[in-house]
Amino acid sequence: MANIQSFGAAKVVTGSAHLLTLDNGTKILIDFGMFQGEHEEKNAQPLEFDPKELDYLFFTHAHLDHVGRAPLLFKHGFRGKIITTKATLDLARIVMLDSAHLMEETFHLHFKKAQRRSEEHKVKTPLYTAMTVESLLTLKKQFVHYDKTITLEGGINITFRNAGHILGSAFIEIDFMEGDRTKHLVFSGDLGNKNDLVLPVPEHAKEADVLYIESTYGDRDHKDIGASIAEFKTIIIDTLNNNANVMIPSFAIERTQEILCLLKSMYLNGELPECRIFLDSPMAIRATRVYNKHVQELSKQCKDFEEQDGSVFDFPNLEFTTTPRASKKINEVTERAIIISGSGMCNGGRIMHHFKHRLWNKRNAVIFVGYQANGTLGRHIVEGAKEIELYHEKISVNASIHTINGFSAHADQNELLEWMRAFKHLDKVFLIHGEEDKQLIFKDVIQEKLHKDVHIVNINEVINL
Ligand code: ZN
User: What is the CA(9)–ligand 1 centre distance, in A?
Assistant: First the structure.
């Protein structure tokens, strides 16, 4: 009997890794992401399966918690085929290389210090390097288009459909023979919401004997996007008209492009006061170029932008600052600047030096447009810190701090239910990619409203299909 074993994103939201083993012995790994936050130490643990035995690696989308450990597969002997959309692989390359560079940088920093104490043997080596990423990407690849079914060896049919979560994201339908009947399996990956500014709305699936669905926001609904956009615009306009500056810590993929679209539409509508806008994040700049390249997969508004002036995101106010020198030069701009920079949760990156130079000034504003995890500097500021320490210096938090919660790359409870309602046939539901307390709420709601059989998947649990 075919089965699925989940090695990550089971009762947690990170470390996605689901191994599908079919009757004929075919082994397909769906995503192999990094554990993040409090579960990070799991990334260094030995793998629970042999990558040499894998035939295929599918990526649902390019977020770190879905692709971040994939280079480890190559390191441990995986030589099978990678199947995903072209946009996902373009973004995954950026994400995996960024992850490798961060790990290499941290290693060198600790190694130098440890050398001075003659303790270099104690320093953990990086999980993988940029070279491992490049090696993984030399493997055979098959790029899939949305809604085009392809047949793999052993008569397995797979269809990737637009999940509307980030560029290239997909949910995957897998049809295979079990005895004399066809089984339909659907993996949701991460599902986006209808209000995404740069992507078309997610597609629906029609049939599933078994559905594996994410449950990140299974416990609640998002705030209204219209109100969030209005709030965002007001802060921008008021701060710039006061000859001050706005800092926006932002995630490199999707959120940054949404913010750029919003600012561009303000510019085109004549709502944007005179200002300079800096996209000051090398990773976000690279990701924005990938978005530009795949314009046919973006929202109608993005396509219109591209048709008007040959680029989705460019407009006269916007400047890309790639080098550290260009980034430092922004400090000379004392008024009417909007600085979009990483990291999204302010636990490193160029946003730190912008905070140092501008957070003390009460005329400036900071707009948080994404989730701030526990323990990050971003969370500390959002929760009302009066002072922070940066580069061994105490900095007063006098700028106005705004948190806008309406932007989300994930479907909320209502959207997840709507998505499931569209199935003509849906037999069993398995919840993955969510925190357990939220999954318990979501499970009850699904049972009550959709009357489906629901199971919350445990880590390493084998589910027979
Ligand atoms: Zn995601």
Answer: 11
- pLDDT by residue (tens digit) across 104-122? 998 898 888 898 898 888 8
CA distances 36 to 66, 292, 407, 424, Å, are 11, 29, 21, 36
The rounded Å distance from CA 17 to ligand 1 centre is: 13
User: What distance in angstroms lies between residue 105's CA and the mean position of ligand 1's atoms?
Assistant: 25
The predicted structure's pLDDT at residue 441: 97
Centre of ligand 1 to C-alpha 415, Å, is: 16
Mean pLDDT of the chain, nearest integer: 95
The pLDDT of residue 372: 84
Each residue's pLDDT tens digit, 424-442: 999 999 999 999 999 999 9
Every domain of the chain with CATH number 3.60.15.10 lies at: 3-220+409-464
| Residue 464 CA to ligand 1 centre (angstroms) | 26
* 61 C-alpha to ligand 1 centroid (Å): 7
- CATH superfamily label, 3-220+409-464: Ribonuclease Z/Hydroxyacylglutathione hydrolase-like (3.60.15.10)
Rounded mean pLDDT, 222-235: 94
| Interval between CA 245 and ligand 1 midpoint (Å) | 31
Give me the residues paired with residue 30 across strands: 18, 58
Alpha helices in 117-242 (DSSP H): 130-136, 225-241
In eight-state DSSP terms, residue 46 is P
Rounded mean pLDDT, 19-42: 92
Residue ranges in 213-339 assigned as alpha helix (H): 225-241, 255-268, 282-293, 300-309, 324-329
Instruction: Delimit the CATH 3.40.50.10890 region(s) of the chain.
Output: 225-407
Alpha-carbon distances of 173 from 61, 158, 284, 372, 425, rounded to whole Å = 14, 6, 31, 33, 13
Do 43 and 14 contact (CB within 8 A), yes or no? no
- Mean of pLDDT values over 384-412: 93
What's the CATH number for 225-407?
3.40.50.10890
pLDDT, one tens digit per residue, over 158-211 is 999 999 999 999 999 999 998 888 999 999 999 999 889 999 999 999 999 999
Which residues keep their CB under 5 angstroms from ion ligand 1?
A: 63, 190
Whole-prediction pTM value? 0.95
